[in-house]
Amino acid sequence: MSIVLASEVHTLGDMFEFVAEHHPAGAIRSVFAEDVLTYAQLAEDGRRIAGGLIDSGVAPGEPVAVLIGSNLDMVRAICGLAAAGAVVVPLSVPLSVSRSYLERLEHVIADCGVRFALTDGDFAEQFGDRLPDITPLDLATLLEKGKRIPRPPVSVSDLALIQYTSGSTSEPRGVALDHRNILEGIRNIQRGVDVRPGDVLGHWLPLSHDMGLFSTLSAIASGVDARLSRPQDFVKHPEEWLQSICAAGVTVMAGPSFFYEYLMEAVPRDEAEEFDLSAVRVMINGAEPIAPELVLRFEEHFSVSGLGVGVMTPSYGLAEATLAVSFTALGSPARVDWVDRDVLNNSWLAKTVDPAAQQARGVVSCGVPVPGMEIRISSEDGRLLPERAVGEIEIRGETVMRGYYRRSEPAANHDGWCATGDLGYLADSELYVTGRKKEMMILGGQNYYPQDVEDAVRDVPGVHKGNAVAVVLPADPETGRAERIGVLAEAESAAAPHDELVSALRAAAAETLGGALADVVLLRRNALLRTTSGKYKRLLMRQRLLEGTLNRVLVHVGAHETVTQRSEPSLL
C-alpha cells in the first residue's frame, strides 16, 4: 500500500502534528551516532521551540535563517519555525569557514533581510563579526525554556520556506515556496518513490540543499524511518556509512551521480559481497547529468551485494519546482538515448545513431513528469519545440515556486511556464537533460557541452578520481590570444614534472574539439569547487581563474605553451 500525505494536511505545521499523531514511533536516526528523534518527540520539541521563537520577537511570516550543523537539530528547527508560522531559510554550515563561504552567507542574509538566526550555540564565534545585525537564537536554550503555545493561524498560500539556489551558474537566489508548494512537492516524491509502510530512507545530503531537505521531509510525512549523516562523515567513512545503511535495512537512497561513483571507488568489487543491499528498491539519482555507463557499472559492481536490476532511478528536479519534476518508472532499467554529438551540439537536434558510432553520445532518460507537472521545450525566441528538438526546459505545476524572494523578475511567463535554465529534449514523453544553458561552450563557431570535453579527459592517467571540468576562456585583444577551452583537472600527484599529464589532457580534449588545443590548469586534489549537491561550480572556477584567485593551482599552461612555471595562490 502506497503512502501519500492526507489531503486535510494544509501547512507544514499541520504535517508535523499529523505525523506525530498517526506515526509517533517513526524516527530519524543518525548513521554514525546513537541519536534518535521520534516523530512524537519532534512535534513536542517543535512546540517548545515555537514558543521560544515567539517570545524572542519572531513574528508569523518572518524569515529566520537556520545555521545548524546537526541534521536532527536542523529538523527540530524546521518543525519549530513551522509551528511558529515563521519562514524557514535553511543555510549550510561548513566544518571550516572560508572567505568565499562568508561572502556567500553575507549575500544571502542581505538578500532575504532576516533579523534572527536559529543556531546551535557557536554563531557568535563563527559569524558574529560578519553579521552584527543578526540576533542569534540558540536552539538548545529555546528547547529548554520555550513554552507550548497555540499555533498561529497559517494559510496554505503563506510563504513557508526560502530555499537558496546552489549558485552553480549564478549568484544564489531565494526560491520562495508556500505551504501548498511544499506539501504538493512532498506528495509528488511519495508517488514517485511509491513510499510504502516499512520503508527506510538513507542519505548523507545536507538539509540546507533541496534534495536532502525535501527527501527527508517526504520520509517524515510518510511516517517512515530515515537514516541521515553529514556529508563530511560519509566522505571520510564511506564503507562504514554503507555498512550502517545495510544494517538498517534502508530501502530508498538518494544522491547525485558522484555519490554512486564514490561508493564504487570506496568499495572494490571483490569486497562488495560483504555488504547486503538486497533491501534497497530505489536509488534516486539526480542533481547532475548521469553518465550512461554509470547505471550499468553500479548495478554490476554491487550485484554480488544483492542489488537488483532497475533499482537506480534517474530523475530530474530543482528547487524552483520544490524538487521533483520527473521520475523514471520504478524497477525499469534506465533508458539511454544514443544521439549524434555534432548534430546535438550544433543543430540542436537529438538524432539517433548506433551506440558504437564515433560521434555517439548517450543521454540518460530522466523519466516522465510527476503528477500535476507539465514539461515543454522552448527555443531562444520562445517557440514551442517538437520532440527531439533541444531547447530550454520549462515547467508548470502546483509545486512551481511563487518567485525569487524580494526579486522583481517573474517566476513564470503569462501562461505560468517557468524557465529552468537547463537544456534538454522530449522523446516518447520522456525527458532527456543535456546540460546547463549558461555552461554551453562556443569555440570556432561550434557548440560544445562541458560534459563532452570532461568525458574525454577524465580517464587520462594521472587525473585524480577523474575530477576535471571544462570552461570557455575569453579572447584577449591585448595579447591576440583567441577564445579557447580551458581544462581544469586535479592531478593525482602534486610533484613535478607535469609535462606528460598536460600533453595527455590536451590530446584527449583535442579529439573532442576537432583538433583545437586547450589551456590546461592542474590543481591539487579536491581543489575543484562543488555545490552542496555535488555540481561543479564551473562558472565560479572560470571567474577565479581569470582573476588569478583560483586556489591550489599547480600549473596553468596556455594552449601553445609548455610547462614552464608552477604557481599556487594562497588559500582563500
Contiguous low-pLDDT stretches (5 residues minimum) are 565-572
The outline comes out as globular
Strand order of the largest sheet: 2-1-10-9-11-12-13-14-17
Roughly what percent helix? Answer: 25-40%
User: What's the tally of helices?
Assistant: 16
Can you say what the CATH homologous superfamily of the largest domain is? Answer: ANL, N-terminal domain
Task: Name some characteristics of this structure.
9-stranded mixed beta sheet, globular, 3 domains, 572 residues, alpha/beta, disordered C terminus, Luciferase, domain 3, Rossmann fold, 4-stranded parallel beta sheet
Explain the overall architecture.
Helix 12 (about 290-300) links the parallel strand 12 and strand 13 (about 310-320). With about 575 residues, the chain is of the alpha/beta class. It has three domains: about 10-255, ANL, N-terminal domain (Rossmann fold, 3-Layer(aba) Sandwich); about 335-435, Luciferase, Domain 3 (Luciferase, domain 3), CATH 2.30.38.10; about 440-555, GMP Synthetase, Chain A, domain 3. Helix 1 (about 10-20) crosses helix 3 (about 70-85), helix 2 (about 40-55) crosses helix 6 and helix 7 packs across helix 8. About 30% of the residues lie in helices and about 25% in strands. The strands form seven sheets. A nine-stranded mixed β-sheet has the order 2-1-10-9-11-12-13-14-17, sandwiched between helices. The protein has a four-stranded parallel β-sheet with strand order 4-3-5-6, with helices on both faces.
